[in-house]
Each structure stands twice: as structure tokens, then as C-alpha cells.
Design goal:
The chain has a three-stranded antiparallel beta sheet. Strands 1-2 form a two-stranded antiparallel ribbon. A two-stranded antiparallel ribbon has the order 4-5. It has helices at 18-39, 45-51, 56-84, 86-105, 110-138, 144-148, 150-173, 186-192, 195-205, 212-217, 221-232, 237-248, 268-282, 285-290, 292-298, 303-327, 333-355, 371-401, 408-436, 438-459; strands spanning 179-181, 184-185, 260-263, 359-360, 366-367, 474-478, 481-485, 492-494. 57% of the residues are buried. α7 (150-173) runs antiparallel to α8 (186-192) and α15 (292-298) crosses α16 (303-327). It is 68% helix and 5% strand.
Amino acid sequence: MSTSTPASASPADAKLNRKVIAISIGAALGGFLFGFDSSVINGAVDSIQGEFELSDAFTGFAVASALLGCAVGAWFAGTLANKYGRIRVMVISATLFLISAIGSALAFNVWDLMLWRVVGGLAIGAASVIAPAYIAEVAPSKFRGRLGSLQQMAIVLGIFAALLSDQLLAETAGGASNDLWWGLEAWRWMFLVCAVPAVIYGVAAMSLPESPRYLVGKHRLEEAAAVLRTFTGEKDVDHKVDEIHQSLGDDEKRSLGDLKGRALGLKPIVWTGILLSVFQQFVGINVIFYYSTTLWQSVGFDESDAFLTSTITSITNIVVTIIAIVLVDRIGRRLLLLIGSLGMTASLGLMAVAFSTAVVDAEGNASLEGAWATTALIGANAFVVFFGATWGPVVWVLLGEMFPNRIRASALAVAAAAQWLANWAITMSFPEMASIGLVFAYGFYASMALLSFFFVFFRVPETKGMELEEMSADVAVKRGKFVRSTAGAAAEEIDPGAAR
């Protein structure tokens, strides 16, 4: 397959117009809900444990219950998106978010709460697939990294908003377990606040144009051309529509069966996406956000200080995501990931060393003394910096763009489902790992960060500047390069730096 593009449609000539920014932001609102809903439980963990008299192990399971729903929602999102369109799946997600917010706030026992959290998880999982896929499919290749990073920016803004609202509600009530308004405790209002962004997301989704790749797949060529012309600034619309049509093939029926390959049952590029997702979670990032308040209380901060510390960490994540948006289309995806892996290894190792000095009282509560408490905070925030500027946004960018058109939604769904399962495993296991010792927990995360470096070095391709249609051939990944083979042509190895 040729990697050249007609001059009239050259990505180098593309301009980033306001319309494509606007629809990318609209799609990324799903990421905001993703971050908000998954992090809102941060301020409610201790209150839920006390309210329903839960053990540490069951508390971990209750916190992680939404993640099981996320895995299921992600798994089916690709199939639904291929059949009904990206926009309808967004609207379904917004509706489920709203139902989950109300149900979680009014839960009368832990099983009831877990049910509504799973419903919210279905929405989060679907949104985590649709947003990066949609943005990749409407964005000009020259700016796809920046626009794709809006997903992560929305996620971290959602996390920040959840932490901030949790803090305000808890302080207003004098504690998360105290009554606030209408006889409902503050922790219940933390969930109820989710209803507001859910409604905004649903309204915004209904105003977005459908993905041109989906429209071509449904033979709605005039609509696809209009979207390409109006929102992406495509100059040679007919040529682009023809390229998309060829990359999709003649068979309209796209399914998970298209992912089959000889490498353990799946195509190599699908395994690359799965392992990217798993490593993103196995470095322990969500432990910082799900358990941050409880964690800092355990090392000597009171509830108010712990909320403040978590909020500062979240703000740091927002700032470094802006750095990622600036760099991702300039220095590429692979280099950012490699830098991030080394930085996370060092910062997680520092945290493990700091917690090795913790003093444990007769009740088993750990506390850090002197400079070691500051050291732990520095390590935690350095970890957030390296993750937020690299693995956080770049993985979502890659998952949205690295798969061929024909399998993009399905492959992204499988990779996202794997990510949520990994997230669930890490979240549920943290209380037990912490009972063994925080040195063990952070040592494990540091080892995963180190392994991720070698994985990226040997197996992750560079996709900077490549058109989505250039990824339409059968793809294998070897030492950071795309290896393409097309019908009737010899295998062609393309160096990442010269992909175009």
C-alpha cells in the first residue's frame, strides 16, 4: 500500500479548525464522566465502609465493582458502535451515567450500591471506547495526537472535579458520613452530583456529527463527505471517501471475529493494544486516585489535609497532560512512552523506599515521620507527572489510531476491556497488598513500570503523522516498526520516522 497522499489532501497542509476542536471536546466529555464517576468514590470509601460495616477486603471489592461493569461496557461498545453508530453509543452512555448517579446516591445496602456502580461502569466502559475512536476518526492526522489527548485531559479534569466536589461536600457537612441536605449523608451527595455532567454529556452528544468512517461503512457517502469537508478540512473529499471505503472492505459485517490471528488467537497489533492497556493500569495509577484520601490519612494526614493533598495531585495531573498535548505530535508516541516508563520506575521506587521507613502502631496503622512523609509526597507527585505526561494520554491516542479501519472499534473495545479488568485487579488487590506492606505494593508497581519500558521498545509502533487508512493492511509489530503485507504485494517494512 502506498503511503503517499495527493498534494491536495496532504496532512501537512491541514489546518486545525474550530469545528473539529469543538466536536472533539464534545466527544471527550465522555472522558470527563469517566474520570468523575470512577474517582468520586475516593471521598466516600471510609464512609461506605463504616455505613455498611465492611471488611478491608470487601471494601476493595465494593470500590472495584464498577470496574467489572466497565470491562463489560467496553467489550460490547465496539459491536454496538459498528451497528448503531458512535453517537448513539454516547447517548446510551450518558443515560446509564444518570441512572447510576441517582441509584448510587439512594442505595440502601452495599449490594444495591454495587449494582448501581456496575451500571455506571457500563457507561464508563462504553465511553472509554467511543471517545478515542471517534476523535481519531474525525481528526486530521497532523493534529490527531493533540485532539486524541483531549480524552485524557477530560479524564483528569473529571478526577479533579470529583475530588473538589467531594472535599466541598464533606467540609460543608463536617465529614463525609454526616447528613447534608434532605436527610442524605454527604457521601451520597458525592454520587448524586454525577447527574449534572451526565445530562450535559447526553445533550452534547446529540449535537455531534457521526463519524465519517462509520458513515462510509454504512454507504452513507454524501453524509461522510459533508463531515469530512466541514469538520476536518479535507480538500479532496472524494479521494478520502474512496480511501476509507477501500480500507473498510466490501463486507459490512464487522465483528470480534475480525481480530483473529495466529498469535495466540489474535492479530499481533491487537495483542499490542491489550498489553499497552494492561501496563497502563499495572503501574498503579488508579491506586493514587481511588485510595489517595485513605492512603494519606494512613500516613498521618487528617481528613481535610488528605483531601487537599489528593486535590493537589489531581491539579498536577492536569498541568502535565497539557505538556503531553503539546509534545505528542512533535516528538511522537514511542519516545513519550519510553520517557514515562523510566520516570515512573524511579518515582515508584522512591515511594517504596519512603514507605519502608513507616512506623506501625499496635493497631496496624502506618505513619511516616519527618522528611519521609515529604519524600513520599514528592514520589507520588513525580509519578503523576511522568504518567500524566506520557502513559495517561498517549495510550488512549494509540488505541484510537493504531488499528486498521476495519477492526478499529472492535480491537479498541477488546483492549479497553482488558484495561478495565487490569484496573479492577489492581484496585481490588491494593488493600490486601497494602496489608502486606506498602513497600511490596509500590515495589510491584515499579517493576511493572520497568517492564513497560522494554515492551514499548520492542513492540510498540510509532503512528505520528500517519493517516488512519495507512493502517488498513494486516499489521504486525516488530521492534517499534509497522510491518505491512498487502494482497498482491511484497511485505513492506516501514520505519516509524518515515511512515509518511
